[in-house]
Amino acid sequence: MTPDTLAAYRRDGFVAGLPVLSSAEAAGLRDQIETLERDHTDGAGGHDLNQFFRVNGHIVLPLLSDLARHPAILDTVEAVLGPNLLAWSVELFIKEPGSPKAVSWHQDITYWGMGETDHEVTAWIALSDVSVQAGCMRFLPGSHKGGIVPHADTFDDDNLLSRGQEIAAVDETQARHGPLKPGEMSLHHGRCFHASGPNMSDDRRIGAALRYVTPEVRQPGMPRDYAMPVRGVDDGQGWIPVAGAGGLFRAADLALYDRILQDQTATLAAGADSDVGLYASQTTGAAL
Question: Is 23 left (phi over 0), alpha (psi -120 to 50) or beta?
Fold first, then answer.
């Protein structure tokens, strides 16, 4: 993170093309993901594998908790947020070749209960070639300088977001693409408008989204939430600390996963007219 790159992030609300993993590391992570898909399709503890991939996977999947602690990623995030870092969420976004799945224009922190904080950043790491053709992210420069804008829930089956939430009337002529090679990373601010298109390439489009916050993020009066300390100290102690996966689908981690899912749902699904499927308990068949 050079001074010029940091200045670009402050100005535009995003930067892309930051090298953080070697091509071998990216390929190794992809292999681990595809091994899980082959050997553990049904998941564990009443949740299918895709739910672990999309919601708090670092609680039960060691590869994701380890990725959130990767020194090169943390060094870059520290340049933006400072020395005290917590990983709030780790997710995988996978688009199959030729898939119509897309992500509509949105701001990340809309439903997270964090207010309009500047002390959150999403690090998005490519584990395959995330080209324009493959449906890389698009960003609207400078959009992070305003507040949170209204979003409409679409619950579109082809929208990868939990509620299919979208911002209306975005001027896409001003948007910029952020293509990434395997092992490269982009960073974007929680209020930055961003979206991604369908994967029209011949390969899978695989990326990991790591959401980092500082200890100061939690607002007075908001419910306490969970986060994994990854660097520095948590002087505020406003978060319930979690250690990350102690092994693959470990019983204690699965129980914690259910607790976190239940506690977070009230905030993340607030105001939705329909069940938010990614936060549903497959054991009970109902939204938590």
Answer: alpha
Examine residue 283 and state whether it is found in any structural domain, yes or no. Answer: no
**Do 213 and 120 contact (CB within 8 A), yes or no?**
yes
Residue 31 belongs to a domain? yes
Q: CB within 8 A of 202, min separation 6: which ones?
A: 97
DSSP assignment of 226-274? EEEEEES--SS--EEE----SSTT-HHHHHHHHHHHHHHHHHHTTT-SS
pLDDT at 178 over 70: yes
Largest CA distance in the chain: 51
Domain count, the chain: 1
pTM listed for this prediction = 0.89
| Residue 246 lies in domain | 3-275
Q: For residue 139, with 0-12 CB atoms within 10 Å meaning exposed, 13-18 middle and 19 or more buried, which class applies?
A: buried
Place of tokens 């470990």: 250
CATH number assigned to the domain comprising residue 221:
2.60.120.620
Element containing residue 3 per DSSP (H, E): helix 3-12
Residue 37: CB atoms within 10 A of its CB come to 13
**pLDDT tens for residues 262-280?**
888 876 655 445 444 454 5
Q: How far is CA 156 from CA 56, 251, 277, 286, in A?
A: 22, 34, 12, 19
Residue 157 corresponds to which tokens in the numbers above? Answer: 């089956």
